[in-house]
Amino acid sequence: MAIPVRPGTSAGHWIPAADPRAVPQARLSWPLSPVPVVMKYFDAPETPYGPGHRGVDLAAVPGQDVLAADAGVVVFAGLVAGRPVISVDHDGGLRTTYEPVEPKVAVGDQVYRGQVLGSVLAGHPGCTIAACLHWGVRRGDEYVDPLALTGEVGEFRLKPWGGGP
């Protein structure tokens, strides 16, 4: 069985939360321009409250514009655990989140794809450069890999099979 893996990883170490064949390719646009370097990849938790990384961290510059990944409605713009977060609901049950971001939008605002939501702030935990944007996506209660929704699913390799019936 072929599974998608990120370039530079070994087979079987990365499986997106959602099968990319079940998701329209390029459903979302990148929240930073130009397309950023991914500093930390999505790592789906094994249980709803288990450890993992429920989004991707993207290399940014403090003050850089954060763009809406698709048209939608701002449902949150405020602090979560002391960090400024923006959440946008989109058609199809998707919700994108962006942090740390100084908002330029307010709850209830309708936004279009590519609209400036705010600006990246320095200080994202675990970021090894001046600033990183944490970008997360949920479909309902399930966190999904944002890269799978941009069409960035990597190359295909065969997963080792241990045999069996």
Summarize the structure.
With 165 residues, the protein is mainly β. It has a single domain (29-148), classed as Glucose Permease (Domain IIA).
Textual characterization of the structure:
The protein is mostly beta strands. The protein has one helix spanning 146-150; strands at residues 2-5, 38-40, 56-60, 65-67, 72-80, 83-90, 94-99, 101-103, 110-111, 116-120, 131-139, 142-144, 155-158. The radius of gyration is 16 Å and the shape is globular. 30% of the residues are buried.
Q: What's the β-strand tally? A: 13
Strand content: 35-45%
Secondary-structure element series: EEEEEEEEEEEEHE
The CATH class is: Mainly Beta
The dominant shape is globular
Largest sheet: 8 strands, antiparallel
Whole-number tally of structural domains = 1
Query: What is the CATH topology descriptor?
Result: Glucose Permease (Domain IIA)
Tally of helical runs: 1
| Relative helix content | under 10%
Protein name: Membrane proteins related to metalloendopeptidases
GO molecular function: metalloendopeptidase activity
Organism: Amycolatopsis camponoti
Pfam family, one: Peptidase_M23
Notable traits:
165 residues, mainly beta, Glucose Permease (Domain IIA), eight-stranded antiparallel sheet, three-stranded antiparallel sheet, 1 helix, 13 strands, globular, disordered N terminus, metalloendopeptidase activity, Membrane proteins related to metalloendopeptidases
